[in-house]
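Anyone else keep sequences and structure tokens together like this?

Example one:
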Amino acid sequence: MSKQRITPRDIQASQESKWVRRLLIGFALTFVFLFLVLPIAAVLTEALRKGWDTYFTSLADPDAWSAIRLTLVITAIVVPMNLFFGVAAAWAIAKHDFKGKAFLITLIDLPFSVSPVVAGLVYVLVFGANGWFGGWLLAHDIKIIFAVPGMVLATIFVTLPFIARELIPLMQAQGTDEEQAAVVLGATGWQIFSRVTLPNIKWGLIYGVILCNARSLGEFGAVAVVSGHIRGQTNTMPLQVEILYNEYQSVAAFALASLLALLAILTLIIKTFVEWRQRVAEESIERGLP
């Protein structure tokens, strides 16, 4: 096979692409600094403007602590539920053929195209006092809207696609050869999942959980509609930040916002680590290493 001859035009194109690459990198770094790093730095600066004592006092406020606790509780409920649904939906879509498969994929993608505020209004229409099931719920003393259950449902809706959408293409790329081999060897369904499927998708699964967790912590629109903004009861951290800022308690608002920012940074660090581990695992598989 003859070697490909490099022409002066190829060399010129390579040199031009290097400058284009540097320009794009510079533009990206400038954009990230102006619209991500600088706002986060401003939030931290404003939160500490009156010192550490005021900062911790703001976070120790009963309403702020209630918002922190409620945010963590909702996240602790939402993430496992989406984890179960995401794995089940991805398994069904990637490993099986059935009628309505395309429709199921469309439904999973629906929260990406629907405004969170609209999603919250839909739950009010269904479960509100004047909603479809409002009369029955009132008769049985069950409260969903303006209570924690409605906030959990709204958060589940907006975070529904993250885990499933992360696993579906991964499972489709892996195919079903290993599962079929396990069936031939007499493995049960649980053994196939725990010893074959789960190890192959674990890093994608962790990545999806991280994204779902991040969205659960910071969700505002859908939760704001169904929460009722009851102090100490139905305010999450984003809602409490809005209330404090509207009441001109800027230091307290920025203190709580800084905690959200720190959680976001921690999520980003974990996400970066997971991506690195996934890349190392893929390179090891390509080289045939265990």
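And example two:
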Amino acid sequence: MPSKKSSSIALLYLKTYNLIQVFGWCYILYIFLQHYSSTQETNLWYNAKWPVVFFQHAALLEVIHAATGLVKSNPILTTFQILSRVMVVSGVLLATPVNYAASSLGLHLALLAWSITEIIRYLYYFLNLIGFVPYLLTWLRYTLFIGLYPIGITGELLCIYSATQYAKSHPEAWSYVLPNSFNFTFSYYLILIVTMLTYIPVFPHLYFHMFAQRRKILGGDSLKKVK
């Protein structure tokens, strides 16, 4: 049985974590919108790179939160959700030259979906921790994913596909091929292909899980309630 002191510290930590993520993704969305509103030609990845790297990797803490019971989330589902994005950021966007994945339409789709989704999600978590969640925010949390999730997944897959083009034309990139003294081989191109294939079983499972959560939280007449 945790003490009141440890519980209050954990609560403060979760509030702080979620609020920081809200501000972080608001900043990333600002960069995204500024890119499209600017009259000058700018590079989206150049401006958004380090904020995306920081806040996307910070989400790895959520795997620990779920695994330790700090939050009531499924550790397996949380791991899949977080690692897929971390893979896109570290294993694709950072691992390939800027004229591949970072210049593709996929980056724009992914950042748009990620930033809106995360602002709503983390704000929902933060307000839930302080005991006040407006119904509109709950409705947005369990409704906008219907469109944003496919957009984000499409963006991620387009980024990975762009990386496969780089890996195909540069077979030595991030690869360790035979023959070698360790009798071991690692193919970056193959890893990218396998990663893309994992979306086939994982995406529908996560997507329909959100629909189940939507029915549980909002019920069947959610559209009427929000009007």
